[in-house]
Amino acid sequence: MQIDSLDDLYVDQLADIYDAEKRLVKALPKMAQKASTPELRSAFEDHVQKTRHHVERLEEIFQELGRDATGKKCKAMMGLISEGKDILDKDIDPKIRDAGIVAAAQKVEHYEIAAYGTLRTLAETRGDRRAAQLLQETLNEEKEADHKLTQVAEASINMQAAGRTSR
């Protein structure tokens, strides 16, 4: 796609995160399945539902722009998912794998937080309040997911991986 304007950049970035979210809808259940603790499994199962809703919000924004919801290959997300898959595929202690899964998932969340913050700002610059609101809702949910992962890691997973009892 030729990028000659802020609007073109905005659509390009929307397409990028759209592809990223669709990839996550497929990857998150695999992470949940490999999680050995109920708290971590539940966090991923909850987030896959929210991720499906993120896809729907993006589709709504594309529709309001009068464009088809299409993604461009999100190389960053492909790399992050690949790194996470490396952890899932390792033959390691499940407690250590859980800590690795959290690390991989938080890298994904931080990428999404950056992407949605940027998109929200672009939508505001364009004067598109509805899109800015939808993007802010998703940004808030991504921040919540990151916070939840931190809580789970600090409350038990990291301590268990270190061979100590949780708090």
Summarize the SSE layout with pairings.
Blueprint: H1 6-34, H2 38-65, H3 75-89, H4 94-126, H5 129-161
Helix pairs in contact: 1-2, 1-3, 1-4, 2-5, 3-4, 4-5
CATH architecture: Up-down Bundle
What is Rg? 17 Å
Beta-strand percent range: under 5%
Average pLDDT value? 94
What best-fitting shape do the alpha-carbon axes yield?
elongated
CATH structural class: Mainly Alpha
Order of helices and strands: HHHHH
Reported for the largest beta sheet, the result is: none
pLDDT below 50 for ≥5 consecutive residues: which ranges? none
CATH homologous superfamily caption: Ferritin, core subunit, four-helix bundle
Q: Percent range for helical residues?
A: over 70%
Q: What is the CATH topology?
A: Ferritin
**What separation lies between the terminal Cα atoms?**
51 Å
Number of helices: 5
Secondary-structure-based class equals: mainly alpha
In total, the number of domains comes to 1
Per DSSP E runs of 2 or more residues, the count of β-strands stands at 0
Protein described:
With 167 residues, the chain is mostly helical. The protein has a single domain, classed as Ferritin, core subunit, four-helix bundle (Ferritin, Up-down Bundle). 83% of the residues lie in helices and 0% in strands. The chain contains 5 helices and no strands. Helix 2 (38-65) runs antiparallel to helix 5 (129-161). The protein starts with 5 loop residues before the first helix and ends in a 6-residue tail after the last helix. The mean pLDDT is 94.
